[in-house]
Amino acid sequence: MTVAALFVATGGCYFGLQDIDPWDVHRDARTYDGPHPVVAHPPCARWCRLAGLVESRGGPKRGHDGGCFAAALAAVRRWGGVLEHPAWSGAWPAFGLPPPNIEGGWQADIWGGWCCHVEQRWYGHRASKATWLYAVGCDLPQLRWGAGPEPEARYSEAAIGARPRSQVCERMSKRERNATPLEFRDVLIAIARTAHA
User: Which residues constitute the domain of residue 36?
Assistant: First the structure.
């Protein structure tokens, strides 16, 4: 079954896969009109915990993402599939989605969707990368729930000079922080492929 991967990085982990139709910024996933189930990764910068700080310093307003989250949510609800966003995303309350239990398990909403909390560290990310999923019309798998394994960490010379040696400092590039681990990508695709036609 073909799956549309919406709001994904150009040339990223969804490109070059059989039966995956990737929609990057050049294709404008807001215009996706089916017919395949989706895995949606709408941009999170305007919804994350730091969005208010950015706004207070003259940056873009919280929630002003050009309609990306709304389009991703509409696609998941119409075609089935799964949407992924950072845990504690401001989009959840803005769109009336229930915050999932951080201990794990799927939680129903009033529109027939299901939410859950999962840490991508369980699936190969070097940081915890707490994530909320919203799935519609799919078979819901048991995932690896709860706090993930201790994240990898390493010192940098700058961190050693700035912090006591007993503290740990993660040094990851923006690209590495944002990347979806391949195992997690495969879990999301597998969920979307169970969407009931």
Answer: 3-193
Query: Could you give the CA distance from residue 65 to residue 107 in angstroms, rounded to a whole number?
Result: 26
For 174, residues 6+ apart whose C-beta sits below 8 A from its C-beta are: none
Distance CA 149, CA 135 (A): 25
User: Domain containing 120 — which CATH number?
Assistant: 3.40.50
pLDDT in tens, 110-135: 999 999 999 998 888 877 888 999 99
How many structural domains are present in the chain?
A: 1
Residue 96, Cβ density class (10 Å: 0-12 exposed, 13-18 middle, ≥19 buried): exposed
Instruction: Give, as one character, the DSSP assignment of residue 97.
Output: P
pLDDT at 142: 94
Cβ atoms within 10 Å of 63's Cβ, excluding its own: 15
pTM for the structure as a whole: 0.85
Query: Rounded distance, CA 65 to CA 90, Å?
Result: 12
Put the strands of the sheet holding 113-119 in their side by side order: 20-23, 3-6, 38-40, 81-86, 130-136, 113-119, 107-108
pLDDT, residue 126, reads 79
Please tell me the predicted confidence (pLDDT) of residue 168.
46
Structure tokens at 170: 């993660």
